[in-house]
Design a protein that fits this description.
Number of domains: 1
Number of helices: 9
Structural class: alpha/beta
Bound molecules: iron/sulfur cluster
Strand content: 15-25%
Helix content: 40-55%
Order of helices and strands: EHHHEHHEEEHEEHHH
CATH topology: Lambda Exonuclease, Chain A
CATH class: Alpha Beta
Radius of gyration: 19 Å
Length: 229
Amino acid sequence: MLYRLTKSKFVLGLQCEKALYLDVYKPQLAWFSPETLSRFRRGRDFEASMKALFPNGIDIIQQLSRNIQRYPELTAQLLEKPGEVTLYEAGFVYNEVLVLADVVHKDADGNLSVYEIKNALSVKEVFRRDVCIQHYVIDGSLSSSALRLTSFCILYNDGNDNACYEELLPQAREAEPLIARQVAHFHEVLQGLEPQVPQGAQCSDPYDCPYRRYCEGQTAVQLDLGLKD
Ligand code: SF4
């Protein structure tokens, strides 16, 4: 099965439903500025250094490369192993949403701790949403297993490339009903036509939207045709 809704697409959908739609059906239109690409690179470097704090992990990317649709199957097999298991980029699916978790640690009693790594000096609202959708999917996917999700931390930068932690599990649990409604809505959006959304503050908040050039082009055409003031 192809899972169209993922963590990053869910978070993009909260910013703009049209961006979500484009990211699923017209991803070739995305354009990232050099600054954004540089931020991605710094984020990946910080993430790699933080993963070293969780040694002896199995990296699902190394096992399956870009075939992310198969990550949940391999993750489930690895988490069935007795004793402690640490996974990087572990995949989970629930209600047709696929998420990849930066670090998952299972202890010998079957308790799971999940860590989301962000190269930022504080825990921004968009990171909390990121954790909430991951929690919704991971907790849902574990409902028929003996495993329990007992901790969900965000790990961020203290300014000197060291780790700060904040536990977000209670907040994520509280957000579950809201996330369920948003997931249902985004599934509906993806079954319809491209949403018509005028450009506005959401185009750069919380991130620069990668579809700005496309939308600016549409707006210019509408102005040429006299369809807009
Ligand atoms: S540029 Fe703005 S309106 Fe267009 S998809 Fe992005 S956020 Fe939505």
